[in-house]
Write a structure and sequence with these properties.
By secondary structure, this protein is mainly α. It has a domain at 30-64. The protein is built from three helices and no strands. It has helices at 7-10, 30-43, 48-59. The longest helix has 14 residues, at 30-43. The chain is elongated. The chain starts with 6 loop residues before the first helix and ends in a 5-residue tail after the last helix.
C-alpha cells in the first residue's frame, strides 16, 4: 500500500489519481482586469474561468 493512502484508516475511497481539483481566487488591479476582460472577449470565451483555465494550460506548456 502507498504511504499516502490513508483510506484504510478513514474508511473513504481514495481519490482518483488522474484528476486534480484546483481552486483559487485572484484579485487583479484595474489595468490587469481590463486586459484580462479584453483578452477573454477577443478569444470568445464565455467565462473568466475558461480564460483562467486556458492561461493555466499555457503556463504548464499544455496549450496547442
Amino acid at each position: 500500500m502507498e504511504k499516502n493512502d490513508l483510506s484504510h484508516k478513514t474508511k473513504r475511497k481514495p481519490r482518483p489519481i488522474r484528476e486534480v481539483s484546483v481552486a483559487f481566487h485572484i484579485t487583479l488591479n484595474t489595468e490587469e482586469g481590463e486586459v484580462f476582460e479584453r483578452k477573454r472577449e477577443n478569444l470568445g470565451l464565455a467565462t473568466k474561468a475558461a480564460l483562467g483555465r486556458m492561461l493555466i494550460r499555457q503556463g504548464l506548456g499544455l496549450a496547442d
